[in-house]
Design a protein that fits this description.
Largest sheet: 7 strands, mixed
Bound molecules: phenylalanine
Distance between the termini: 76 Å
CATH architecture of the largest domain: 2-Layer Sandwich
Radius of gyration: 40 Å
Helix content: 40-55%
CATH class of the largest domain: Alpha Beta
CATH superfamily of the largest domain: Bira Bifunctional Protein, Domain 2
Order of helices and strands: HHHHHEEHEHEEHEEEHEHHH
Length: 354
């Protein structure tokens, strides 16, 4: 009786396994054979009623059926999955010849462009880009740059101080403050070669002065550094940024943290030195302050001025951007008008959004 039933189920199963059309049918079969009231499940519960001497054989036969089902189930399932995947691959192909969706790209701000140009140039000369801080202590902004309290050189720069318990702090007025940080942080007090670009703040406001503008500071510290190195570096840099024909002129000047100090002019790139409204008929445009780092500054920042010398220079990045891109009013740089920034798009980068 039981063997009959066993053979019946086996035959049914073999027949059913021949005719599975899809995954749904396969899953129906799983219920039919292995579900709670499934045919194989039923056989399984028969085992306990089988006389002992036949139990083993019967049990083995039921297990064989179960294995047969499971093996076929796995095979069919992976077959259907693969079939489905292939179908999807065929129907979901992408036509790469279709025109793409237009993307609206932004453009880099002219100050980003000019900053990157300066950084690239100095990095190629072995400098590292140093990030300074914008909120500075009186000590770092002035005192350690050789401008003690009450020094007249403060007048031009006494600008935006913080309030209450932070009144000893101000928005930095020059990137020269980065010199102090870089020297103090340099634990081995050895050679240094950095440029620090960043925002600075002063209480100025007209077509060529903004209360916020950008400078880049350069600092080189080493043994046997001389004014000749400074001159060579600045000449090279002015030519690279403003064009090889640029002439460079050094005039004696005064900065509290450098001695000797110079002001650097470049020949006017608009009139090539003949005289025009840009250079106010002088043929020259002032672009940089520079000098040899004052021994007091070296000493206050932990360097031995008998062993080390250095040179420093600082210039307004906005000024260079204005010259280079022909921007007549510095306030447009900070005006946040998208039409202004879009002019710095490269033509081939301009896409219309749909
Ligand atoms: N910090 C000076 C300024 O803002 C420029 C400068 C930098 C001068 C480094 C000498 C050395 O005008």
């Amino acid at each position: 009786m039981n063997n009959e039933k066993l053979n019946e189920v086996k035959e049914k199963l073999e027949r059913d396994l021949q005719n599975i059309e899809n995954e749904a049918v396969l899953n129906e079969l799983k219920v039919k054979y292995l579900g709670k009231k499934g045919l194989i499940t039923e056989l399984n519960s028969e085992i306990k009623n089988i006389p002992n001497e036949q139990k083993k054989l019967f049990g083995m036969a039921v297990n064989e059926l179960k294995d047969l089902f499971n093996k076929s189930y796995e095979e069919k399932l992976s077959f259907f999955k693969e079939e489905e995947l292939n179908k999807r691959i065929q129907t979901e192909t992408i036509d790469i010849t279709l025109p793409s969706k237009k993307v609206k790209r932004g453009s880099l701000h002219p100050m980003t462009l000019i900053t990157e140009e300066f950084e690239d140039l100095f990095v190629s000369m072995g400098y590292t880009v140093y990030e300074g801080v914008e909120i500075e202590s009186d000590e770092n902004c002035f005192q350690k740059l050789n401008v003690p309290k009450g020094h007249p050189a403060r007048d031009a720069q006494d600008s935006f101080y913080l309030k209450d318990e932070y009144e000893n702090f101000l928005l930095r007025t020059q990137t020269s403050t980065a010199q102090v940080h870089a020297m103090e942080e340099n634990a081995d007090k050895g050679p240094l070669r950095i440029v620090c670009p960043g925002k600075v703040y002063r209480k100025d406001e007209d077509a060529t002065h903004s209360h916020q503008f950008m400078q880049i500071e350069g600092l080189v510290i080493d043994k046997d550094v001389s004014m000749a190195d400074l001159k060579g570096t600045l000449e090279l840099f002015c030519k690279k940024i403003l064009g090889e024909k640029t002439k460079v002129r050094f005039r004696p000047s005064y900065f509290p943290f450098t001695e000797p100090s110079v002001e650097v002019d470049v020949s006017c790139f608009k009139c090539q030195g003949k005289g025009c409204n840009l250079c106010k008929q002088t043929g020259w445009i002032e672009v940089l302050g520079a000098g040899m780092v004052h021994p007091n500054v070296l000493e206050m920042c932990g360097y031995d001025p008998k062993k080390y010398q250095g040179f420093a220079f600082g210039t307004g990045l906005d000024r260079f951007a204005m010259f280079k891109y022909g921007i007549p009013d510095i306030r447009t740089i900070y005006g946040n008008d998208i039409r202004f920034i879009e002019q710095f798009n490269r033509k081939d980068d301009t896409y219309e959004a749909k």
